[in-house]
Design brief:
The chain is of the alpha/beta class. The protein has two domains: 16-165, Nitrogenase molybdenum iron protein domain (Rossmann fold, 3-Layer(aba) Sandwich); 180-229, Rossmann fold (3-Layer(aba) Sandwich). 41% of the residues lie in helices and 16% in strands. The strands form four sheets. A five-stranded parallel sheet has the order 5-4-3-6-7, with helices on both faces. Strands 1-2 form a two-stranded antiparallel ribbon. Strands 8-11 form a two-stranded parallel sheet. Mean pLDDT is 86; it is low at 18-25.
Length: 234
């Protein structure tokens, strides 16, 4: 049975009227963790990660195939080593990123500069920035990334697993004395973690006392003499 010309044109007109909304549905808007509006095809098919924590989250969400590039600092999980390296926190290889043609780049406010993000956007690569500062912020970042890549259910499962582990640690360390801890993250100069940083929050939650926990800077530099004067136990 053939469709009558009148009905055909009516159906075609309806489909054409829906086209703008269908096009919009394929491109979603998100506000990233530094307040920027990011618009990109959803879900993304080719993702570049610019930090180890981002890469680990993306693999945990099951995006092994979608990840096409990572920073040189990304070495976990093992599969991350097989992805194309696109530079460091402070020096991105924009030529490699352009070659990879990502439909989404995920950056970190803790390492990637505003200029880098701006340049990526100018090159036509939508860039979503996460910026977790404390433990709870990390959980929020996992939730946000789950929404951005269309893996909300998987993200919720990861968050629930972390929450269970956190509660277990709290129970195990309750009532115990807190050892003084020095956490070194840089060698020349010696850099540690201060008040307001994610690592400082993690040390506190795990039952330790950060010897640099009262420093105003998130990542202060300490001399060896100063470190010894504070008598770290761990």
């Amino acid at each position: 049975m053939k469709i009558q010309p009148q009905k055909f044109f009516l159906i075609l007109s309806l489909l054409l009227s829906l086209w703008p909304s269908l096009l919009f549905a394929a491109h979603l808007k998100f506000i990233d963790e530094v307040g920027r509006e990011v618009v990109f095809a959803h879900p993304p098919r080719r993702i570049v990660s610019l930090a180890p924590n981002i890469t680990e989250i993306l693999f945990s969400l099951g995006l092994d195939e979608e990840i096409v590039g990572v920073s040189i600092h990304c070495n976990f999980p093992e599969k991350a080593k097989s992805k194309v390296p696109v530079g460091s926190y402070i020096s991105l290889d924009f030529e490699k990123i352009t070659f990879l043609k990502p439909d989404l780049v995920i950056a970190t406010g803790a390492g990637n500069t505003r200029d880098m993000v701006g340049r990526l956007e100018k090159l036509g690569f939508p860039t979503y920035v996460i910026f977790p500062k404390k433990f709870n912020d990390v959980l929020k970042s996992i939730d946000h990334l789950g929404q951005v890549v269309g893996r909300e259910k998987e993200a919720m499962g990861i968050i629930q697993g972390i929450e269970r582990k956190r509660q277990r640690v709290i129970e195990l360390t309750k009532g115990l004395s807190r050892p003084r801890v020095f956490l070194q993250i840089g060698e020349a100069p010696i850099v540690t973690v201060g008040k307001g940083s994610f690592a400082d929050d993690l040390l506190r939650l795990s039952g330790g006392e950060n010897i640099a926990g009262k420093e105003k800077e998130m990542y202060p530099r300490l001399g060896m003499e100063e470190i010894l004067n504070r008598s770290p136990e761990v």
